[in-house]
Design a protein that fits this description.
Layout: H1 2-28, H2 39-45, E1 53-56, E2 71-74, E3 106-109, E4 125-127, E5 130-134, E6 137-141, E7 144-147, E8 153-155, E9 160-168, E10 172-179, E11 184-193, E12 200-201, E13 206-210, E14 220-227, E15 230-232, E16 238-239, E17 244-245, E18 249-252, H3 259-271, E19 275-277, H4 284-291, H5 295-302, E20 315-317
Antiparallel strand pairs: 1-2, 3-18, 4-7, 5-6, 7-14, 8-13, 9-10, 9-12, 10-11, 11-13, 11-14, 14-15, 16-17, 19-20
Length: about 325
């Protein structure tokens, strides 16, 4: 009899412990039901939030429990409203500005009495800004990758407000901060977020822990610098070997975005076939306009004169 009671007590305690652990996991585990399948498509399809007060309930992913209940953020208090006319907590680049064509020059004071600087992470760069090999093809890398161990702290680079804190397919757990100085910085591949949308942060505040979530080959921090949605080479802002700021100000003009021409050219090259068959009525000029290749280059590639008449069905080399 005593033995039977003892077994019942063990079974009951195991049942309660199991339910307790399950409840804790449900509270603390990330919500993975709203995973963004494609970051670029998200930026194209999502509509921007209205420019008014945002009321946030504490019923979202686990990092939202850091936020005070019924938290209210008045977007009229968003930083750098002289450069941004709305506040979007979902879309990374809702602004859709072609800054490689900008005519004016803007000088941003990066650090002021109320806005200091802190390196976003401490570590060596494993990948820098520019083209890099991704499998068989070259892919443009719009940030820098800092080697880190899982759980290492990641810091806000400047003072500002958290605009986005979420999970995406490519970036994994990520944070985007709009800063008082006009820049926006993006941090990706966290193992855990320690901030929430609408939170004010100072330079050096810990916003999350490093990890390898999303499209990542190992633990690191992916760090981007943006202005009005377009990426700027972070090496123009931070000297990463020492983690120091290059200058107290940053001059922004169209030269900061000339890499976008390289990206556009690379995309066109991928879409352009190596050969085509000429259609009825085709000329070198018509083909050059259709594929964005000069008549002289077409003639050189095909070892013909620029005045050569193209017959229907002729094989024309494009690249």
């Amino acid at each position: 009899m005593i033995k039977r009671v003892f077994l019942v007590l063990i079974f009951s305690s195991g049942f309660f412990i199991s339910n307790y652990v399950k409840a804790q996991v449900e509270i603390t585990s990330p919500d993975t039901t709203e995973v963004i399948e494609n970051e670029e498509e998200e930026e194209e399809d999502e509509e921007s939030a209205e420019f008014d007060s945002v009321i946030v309930e504490s019923n979202g992913p686990y990092w939202d429990f850091l936020r005070p209940r019924n938290f209210v953020f008045d977007t009229s208090n968003a930083p750098a409203n002289q450069y941004y006319n709305f506040w979007d907590t979902v879309v990374i680049n809702p602004y859709k500005k072609d800054l490689k064509l900008m005519e004016d020059t803007i000088v941003l004071p990066l650090v002021t009495d109320g806005c200091g600087f802190h390196p976003p992470a401490i570590g060596d760069l494993s990948s820098t800004f520019g083209f890099r090999r991704w499998g068989r093809r070259a892919k443009f890398h719009f940030g820098v990758d800092v080697r880190m161990d899982v759980g290492d702290p990641v810091y806000a680079a400047f003072a500002g407000v958290i605009r986005i804190a979420k999970r995406s397919a490519d970036y994994g757990y990520m944070v985007l901060i709009r800063h008082d100085n006009g820049l926006e910085t993006l941090y990706a591949h966290f193992s855990q977020l320690l901030c929430y949308v609408g939170q004010n942060v100072n330079a050096g505040d810990i916003i999350g822990l490093a990890g390898s979530t999303g499209r990542s080959t190992g633990p690191h921090l992916h760090f981007e610098v943006r202005f009005k949605g377009e990426k700027i080479n972070p090496n123009k802002v931070v000297y990463f070997p020492s983690g120091s700021l290059l200058s107290d100000s940053l001059q922004i003009d169209k030269s900061c975005f000339k890499h976008l021409y390289e990206v556009k050219a690379a995309k066109l090259k991928i879409k352009t076939p190596k050969y085509i068959k000429a259609r009825k009525g085709d000329t070198l000029y018509r083909i050059s306009r259709e594929y964005g290749i000069s008549v002289k280059r077409l003639a050189r590639l095909n070892k013909i004169s620029t005045k050569t008449k193209i017959k229907r069905g002729r094989k024309i080399r494009l690249r």
